[in-house]
Amino acid sequence: LDNRRRVPIARLERAGELVRKDELMDQLFGIEDEPSENAIEQYVGRLRRKIVGSSVEIRTLRGLGYQLVVT
C-alpha cells in the first residue's frame, strides 16, 4: 500500500486507542524521510475532511496524539 492508504487503515484498525504523533510519522514517512513539523497536522486535516458526515471522527489529544472515535 502507498503511504496515503497505510495511515488511514492503521487508524481504523485501532479505533478508540491513542495513536501517538511519532507513530504516525513513522508509518507515513518512514525513518529516512524528514517531513516538515506540520506534516501530520496537515495529513490529519485532510483525513478529517474526507470523513465528514461519517460515523467516525478523529480527536486530537493535545500533547499525546490522535484517537479515532466512532460516534
What does this protein look like?
This protein is α+β, with helices and mostly antiparallel strands. It contains three helices and three strands; from the N terminus they run αβααββ. The chain has helices spanning 3-13, 21-29, 39-50; strands at 18-20, 56-61, 65-70. It has a three-stranded antiparallel beta sheet with strand order 1-3-2. The radius of gyration is 12 Å and the shape is globular. The model has no long low-confidence stretch (mean pLDDT 79).
Contiguous helical run count:
3
Strand order of the largest sheet: 1-3-2
N→C terminal distance: 28 Å
Our Rg estimate from Cα atoms comes to: 12 Å
Q: Return the structural class.
A: alpha+beta
Largest sheet: 3 strands, antiparallel
- Helical content band: 40-55%
* Apparent shape: globular
Helix and strand element order: HEHHEE
Task: Give the assembly state of these chains.
Answer: single chain
Beta-strand portion reads 15-25%
Number of strands: 3
Mean pLDDT across all amino acids: 79
The poorly predicted ranges are: none
